[in-house]
């Protein structure tokens, strides 16, 4: 199994002696490390790696190091994600870290966050009323007339709806 640089950083941090205690604190050579919250909202710290003779700096996510200590190489298996069981990305206590599938990880999220994600995804799937576009086209309206009537700004959008929509099968003669 080929490991990414981020995964190599986890293993390297562990081998160098970085540890996450049961409360989620990170220690190195007996001293508590200061952590930062990265752009995705997770605690992390940086380490220097030697990759092919070059020194590079990589972030190590605390929850992933905690999971590596708890589960070993299982966290690197395809289709496995590290989970915060209480959905709090900042809670890296040992009893709050698990592993599972993306579906299981999604279940850990609060219902409000799941709903926001669903609504966001759905907002891209259907921007225009496909049935109305197809109905007007079947009645002989031109692309320009449909654009004006339904306030659609792109001929490409209408073409996509007409040629690729599931509903297009209903209106095609």
Characterization of this structure:
The protein is α+β, with helices and mostly antiparallel strands and 173 residues long. The chain starts with a helix and ends with a helix. Helix 1 crosses helix 2 (62-71). Helices cover 43% and strands 20% of the residues. Residues 166-171 have low confidence and may be disordered. A 3-stranded antiparallel sheet has the order 1-2-3. A 3-stranded antiparallel sheet has the order 4-5-6. Strand 1 (19-20) and strand 2 (26-28) form a beta hairpin.
Provide a compact summary of the structure:
This protein is an alpha+beta fold and 173 residues long. The chain has helices at residues 5-16, 62-71, 102-107, 111-125, 130-138, 143-150, 155-164, 168-171, and strands at 19-20, 26-28, 31-32, 36-37, 43-51, 54-61, 81-84, 97-100.
Write the layout of secondary structure elements.
Elements: H1 5-16, E1 19-20, E2 26-28, E3 31-32, E4 36-37, E5 43-51, E6 54-61, H2 62-71, E7 81-84, E8 97-100, H3 102-107, H4 111-125, H5 130-138, H6 143-150, H7 155-164, H8 168-171
Antiparallel strand pairs: 1-2, 2-3, 4-5, 5-6, 7-8
Helix pairs in contact: 1-2
Q: Label the overall shape.
A: elongated
Largest sheet composition: 3 strands, antiparallel
Query: What low-confidence regions span 5 or more consecutive residues with pLDDT below 50?
Result: 166-171
Strand order of the largest sheet: 1-2-3
Structural class: alpha+beta
Number of helices: 8
Rg measurement, Å:
25 Å
Helix proportion:
40-55%
Strand fraction: 15-25%
Mean pLDDT: 86
Number of DSSP-assigned strands = 8
